[in-house]
Amino acid sequence: MSTPSQEDYLEAIWVLIDQKGYARVTDLAEYLKVSPASVSKMVRRLNGDGLLTYERYRGFSFTPHGRKMGRLLYARHQILERLLTHLRMGSADEVHATVEGIEHHFDARRLDQIEQLVTYIDAHPVWWDQYLDSSKS
Ligand code: MN
């Protein structure tokens, strides 16, 4: 299994803060299935990059730029999950795992194209069902 990237950390911090109102090193380690030492190392790196503020004993939070990045990375993940779910590419867990593998390759412009398609599918459910029926071998 590959090491969670900086993007995965920012996305995970966004999710944790959204769910619980805060994110701690231990929460993040559990969520990303990595060691607390790895989390601390990345938190310091993200702090150095201006994406998190970090205070010893008080933990960390987003800078405005980090918060914006986290929100965009989470939105990217969700758009790709919607596409794979429409394509019936497995259970929710399987879709999540697949998106974890591919999401880093979609820049904003490519993501816009995917989002337009997903929005079109949502607006044309009959058309999409017909497509799915026709694509079954
Ligand atoms: Mn993700």
Helix and strand run: HHHEEHHHH
Q: CA-to-CA gap between the ends?
A: 33 Å
Q: How would you characterize the largest beta sheet?
A: 2 strands, antiparallel
Numbering strands along the chain, what is their spatial order in the largest sheet?
A: 1-2
Silhouette? elongated
User: What ligands does this structure carry?
Assistant: manganese (II) ion
Number of helical segments with 4 or more residues: 7
Fraction of residues in helices?
over 70%
Cα radius of gyration in angstroms: 17 Å
Low-confidence segments, ≥5 residues, pLDDT <50?
Answer: none
Tell how many strands the DSSP assignment holds.
2
What would the average pLDDT be, to the nearest integer? 93
Structural class: mainly alpha
Overall tally of domains: 2
- CATH structural class of the largest domain: Mainly Alpha
Percent range for β-strand residues:
5-15%
Instruction: Tell me which CATH architecture of the largest domain applies here.
Output: Orthogonal Bundle
Q: CATH superfamily of the largest domain, please? A: Winged helix-like DNA-binding domain superfamily/Winged helix DNA-binding domain
